[in-house]
Design brief:
It contains 15 helices and 13 strands. Bound molecules: iron/sulfur cluster.
Length: 425
């Protein structure tokens, strides 16, 4: 049987994980399990075909809760060839899925001799790259680190500690050539309130030499003029991970973030950038399944109300993280959350799913969440039609933004000038 809602199935897999049967030949057929960045992408990448679109999902398979999952991945010999299917312990389900293979460029080396999978990895159809050193919240005993995160045990171990601009450019070129990526997502841990500035050279190089859409995820800057500079360099997307709307939860689970940065700084920067870069260009990132659902729903409405889209991660109790002992959320609660992601974007007229070929495996995007709303009314149908039109109209604009081209030079930043002045005294 196969009449499964791929968005609902993705949520079930995010929350319950997956057992992998011995019949599966993951070494041969799948992308390796990549434990990089914060660790959210440390599952098995798979694709669930749906009526409207294919859903990409990174499914937990190594965590303890995944070993008790009712879902099992099997490889079956069928008349049309070998097929991967998801079987359910209690339901009559045998859902066909695809496993995206490991791209050849993963094992290629950059001119510095670094394996490209140590520089960046595919998370769905885009390239994710963690730049900068290990997040400062992990220094010392790591008491300031966000409790869901495993950056401090991944960066420098599972992936290269320091990526040069050349490493990133060469990896992005290979990923564009072979995997057809259209988007590079740069993220960095905490390195002071100037983290954003440290990403400028990477953005410039990707825009001038690769020609891709570029997203930046970094601790928000206090000096909002830094975002004008990113806009001039051609940044396409900014995301602000403020994690929890309820400040008590932020303080408990992200002590460094709340103390050194503060939720207000995140919200101020997000609101500013949503205006500066335009509706639907920025996102506020939160985690669902830890704080009360009512707080998550408030966050979603607030993010959409300022013209940004909510990126909601299903809480994953990662092996090795401070919160590994907490249970994963209930899929039914997550469905309430993601229906609201789609509905809030519609209510506040935040365009979603415009950029070409960006499928995200770590979360259900607002565009994926549309598949949860099967009882669409008139307003919803009109909104879907408007988005389809928007995709057509914006196609030339995205094509233009994906052309490699020189960027204007930027004035030196004030503090650089101040430093230069001091040095000449
Ligand atoms: S800011 Fe938090 S989530 Fe981000 S890398 Fe640092 S500890 Fe991890």
């Amino acid at each position: 049987m196969h009449d499964v809602n791929p968005a609902r199935l993705s949520l079930d897999l995010f929350c319950r994980g997956l057992r992998v049967d011995d019949s599966c030949r993951l070494d041969e057929h799948a992308r390796g399990i990549q434990r990089t960045r914060a660790g959210l992408g440390s599952g098995l990448e798979l694709c669930i075909p749906g009526r409207r679109k294919v859903h990409w999902v990174n499914v937990p398979v190594v965590e303890e809760f995944a070993q008790r999952s009712p879902w099992q991945l099997v490889l079956r010999d069928e008349p049309e060839g070998a097929v991967y299917r998801l079987l359910h312990a209690d339901r009559d389900a045998a859902v066909p899925v695809w496993l995206p293979p490991t791209p050849k460029w993963y094992t290629q080396k950059t001119s510095r001799g670094v394996e490209m999978a140590q520089v960046g990895v595919l998370q769905g159809t885009y390239l994710g790259v963690y730049v900068g050193g290990i997040c400062a919240f992990w220094s010392g005993k790591g008491h300031d680190a966000c409790q869901f995160c495993t950056t401090g045990v991944n960066v420098g171990v599972e992936e290269e500690l320091t990526k040069s601009i050349e490493d990133v450019v060469e990896t992005a070129l290979a990923a564009k050539e072979e995997s057809g990526i259209t988007f590079v997502h740069l993220n960095a841990g905490y390195a002071g309130l100037d983290t954003v500035a440290s990403l400028e050279p990477f953005v410039r190089a990707l825009k001038e030499r690769v020609g891709v859409l570029v997203g930046v995820q970094a601790t928000p800057a206090l000096d909002l003029s830094l975002y004008d500079r990113l806009r001039t360099l051609g940044v396409d997307h900014l995301s602000f991970c403020y994690e929890f709307h309820d400040v008590d939860y932020l303080e408990t689970y992200c002590p460094g973030k709340q103390r050194a940065v503060g939720q207000d700084t995140y919200l101020r920067a997000l609101e500013h950038c949503a205006k500066l870069f335009g509706r639907g260009s920025c996102s506020g990132e939160i985690i669902a399944g830890v704080e009360p659902i009512a707080s998550t729903l408030r966050a979603i409405d607030w993010i959409a109300s300022v013209g940004a889209f909510p990126t909601v991660c299903v809480f994953r109790p990662l092996a090795g993280a401070g919160m590994e002992h907490l249970p994963p959320p209930d899929p039914a609660d997550m469905e309430v959350v993601y229906r609201e992601v789609w509905n809030a974007c519609r209510r506040h007229l935040v365009p979603v799913g415009m950029a070409p070929n960006i499928e995200v495996s770590l979360v259900l995007t607002p565009d994926d969440a549309a598949d949860l709303v099967e009882d669409a009314g008139v307003a919803d149908r009109l909104w879907r039609a408007a988005l389809a039109m928007g995709r057509l109209v914006t196609r030339p604009r995205f094509a233009h933004r994906m052309k490699a081209a020189p960027r204007p030079s930027l004035p030196a930043r004030e503090e650089d000038l101040r430093k230069a002045k001091l040095e000449t005294l």
